Amino acid sequence: MLQTIKRILYASDLGQGSRPAFRYAVNEAIRHDAEIIFLHAVEPISELTEDIIEDYLPEKLSKKHSEQIMQSRKLRIKERIESFVQSELDAGVELPKPATIKVSIGQPHRIILEKAKTMAVDMIVMGDRESNSISRIFLGSTAQKVIHQSQVPVLIVPLKKEK
Question: How far, rounded to the nearest angstrom, does the alpha carbon of residue 156 sit from its chain's CA centroid?
Answer without folding.
Answer: 12
